[in-house]
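Annual report, structural modelling task.

Input specification for the NAP complex:
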Amino acid sequence: MSKFKNVGIVGLGLIGGSLALEIKKRGIAVCVTGFSKRLSTLKKAKEQGLIDEYLVNFEDGLKDLDFLVIATPINVIKNYFVQIKRCKPALFVIDVASVKERVVKDADAILGWNSNFVSCHPIAGSEKSGIDAVKERLFENKFVIVTPSEHTREENLLKVKEFWRLLGSIPVIMSPSEHDRLLALTSHLPHLVVYSLISLVEESGEKRERLSNCIGTGFLDTTRIGKSSPELWTEIFMANKKNLFFWISKFEQNLSEIKEMLGKNSCEKLTEKLKILKQIREELDEKGRDI
Ligand code: NAP
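The model returned the following structure:
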């Protein structure tokens, strides 16, 4: 039996489109209604069977929904809260944004403490974006960080956890601030470092063709995430800059320590450090396999 009658998804890109696909495939809702910015995206989503129907007027569409997923860029989520508050304040709503403190604060301020909003972040995705990047089983065996505010009701938390489990995901509860602090280290800093690394290709002054001859899979694998959406990542960096500043300083300290070891020819010290780091990295693979 379907869990929901009519699920709305606003934003039908990589995350929203992949969610629509799974909700339909797994029969989680009787009807999936799509909303997006461009009509071309809505038409494509319908043609590809990701959604049952689409509406260009968001507020008109709200009245028939019993669940809404906001999968838009972070900066426009607030506008949707305003419209939900105006037209259907008791609607059960989640978002999937990569930064949580700001979204939860906006939700509390706009939707109010009594709302049925729960903030989530699936630790799933890729460097691709838009409806053409939609991927089957994107959320299967992936963690989803659920970040309730102090006002989130237990029944809504249970409902959200069940929703993600139906998609094959593993929900984990965290405060919005813990989420933003940890994600700054595990996702936001790596993207920033990769962008900085790629900028050296430009700044090196070396001939691009000669440099390309020397680029192997190591550089390509390490910098894959540098192909991600510049708009999305600008939003994420800006929304989480407090935590990013902290980790950037730590990263600079770390680089300086390694530079100092090189300068002092501290071979043994460097090997010791690299041995420890190799072990830590291998343990991360082990943890991944446990899922
Ligand atoms: P995406 O592929 O670029 O898709 C974003 C979608 O939002 C597009 O389909 C776009 O519609 C739509 N959109 C843009 N402005 C809109 C507006 N004002 N109203 C309605 N729809 C609008 O981005 P994404 O990667 O799916 O990211 C979506 C959200 O998920 C973000 O908040 C992001 O932080 C979060 N997230 C991303 C990842 C990841 O790996 N990418 C992982 C976890 C969470 P049109 O096509 O119609 O222009």
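The chain has twelve helices and eight strands.
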